[in-house]
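In this supplementary section we document a worked example of the pipeline. Step one takes a protein sequence of length 416 as its only input; no multiple sequence alignment statistics are reported here. Step two produces a three-dimensional model, which step three serialises into structure tokens for compact storage. The input and output of this example are shown verbatim.
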Amino acid sequence: MSGKRSSHSDEGFDAVFVGGGVIGLAGAWRAAQGGARVCVLERAEPPAGATNVAAGMLAPVGELSFGEPELLKMMLAAGQLWPEFVAELEAASGERTGHLPTGALVVALDRDEAGELRRRHELQQELGLETEWLTPTRCREVEPGLTTSFVGGVMAPGDASVDPRRLALALVAALRAAGGELRTGTEVVDGLWDGGRLVGVRTASAETRPGDDSVRTLDVHADAVVLCNGAWSGQTTWLPEEARPPVRPVKGEVIELRPREDGPPIANGNIASERIYLVPREDGRLVVGATQEERGFDTTVTAGGVHELLREAYRVLPDIAEMELAGTIAGLRPGSPDNLPIVGRGAVEGLVLATGHFRNGILHTPLTAETVAAILAGTEPPPAMAGADPARFAANPGPFVAQEATKGTSPAEAAR
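The serialised model returned by step three reads:
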């Protein structure tokens, strides 16, 4: 940054959270509820980052996949927390979150997809998960707007959705009600160190007085620094290289459709196929997602991406052709090498990581918040999150070794 600099020092906190998406806000709220003095630092205004783009599917059962037992354990544990979490949050904040416990229907559009979906359903049944195979006729009873050309589907009645933007605003209100702070328009530019221990961060924000382009820096001291800035967490240059989590951005484009005036909702609950998902909102809007591309930090909305989403959505729900294209947006998911989140103590003392959630950040929010709050309080984290320990990325605990995604585990190869 150019211009003059003025530097100040802040009173200390028990924890400072770098990143104001739902992961950081929820973790700070839970910590504040336990009596911790917390501050969330965010360079934009919530909802921001991946939170602003996410569809908000809460589908631990419907999105079950083979070969990821640790991820499945986390997803199921997080899903079980959501009803109580959202009820508590809405009571604490006085805000609605758009939580819709309407279930999810996954449909197979051809015989190949049906074979894969049958195998997934068998696994769901073996695990004792509540699902049901439905014929096309039964599927259309659940979702009358479905195409007439498909093979069958699986209903997961316990799955749900939430509006991530409303969720973020509710978390802001709950955090403040619990005594926590949120500082926006603030960028972290350096760490504060006491020997090898991280003891806070230095922030910078531009002054807005006419004719004054000075930059104001503020040292924010804390017993712990929680890194929860999503796709940017791997680019945290103020941390030693060995302490930066192996997180990379994975681009996703999403479109939003709106029904014609006085038109009925086109979907009763979440609907997904092998290539697409459609998530309804309380006001009748429909969120359609999402493309997946390894494009660095590019967030350009492309004609090809929009065409792909509309084409696949039309194959599932033909009536979308009559809906208004209300918006398009692209965001960055934080991908990790093994598709698991990275949550736990970092490679330097004083650092806690809460990142790498990729496609499941909204679903994992209450479980990650409990984990972070437990770490900060010095208590035992939830057992379901044991597989998220950052130490797995080194032969010995810390420092981390940068890794590239391996074949078969890249987020870009996931179905959605």
